[in-house]
Amino acid sequence: MSFTVEYFHERVLLEVEAWPVDVLADYARLVELLAEHGPCLRLPHSRAFGDGLFELRPKGRGGIGRAFYCFLVGKRIIVLHAFIKKTQQTPDRELKLARQRLKEVRDA
To answer: What is the gyration radius of the CA atoms in the chain, in angstroms?
Structure first.
């Protein structure tokens, strides 16, 4: 049950690649798990935000990363938005941007 992972825009991939190396390594491991297990991947690695939006939860000494993603027909995963968390709670503007991109992907 292998899924393909794509990025909403090249900027999302560049954002991920700019993360601290240990967070990036954990992200790479989690993306492999996500591609293998798809929607069956759950906490602590992935969390559902409702309405088809999920977050991948990489971490390391360099910080805590978050990557919002969704599933599309044809076993496709689209990474919509990625950032390094600075606070305990996910900022509203980050979640709002991810939801806006999810809507764009679905309407396309």
So the answer is: 13
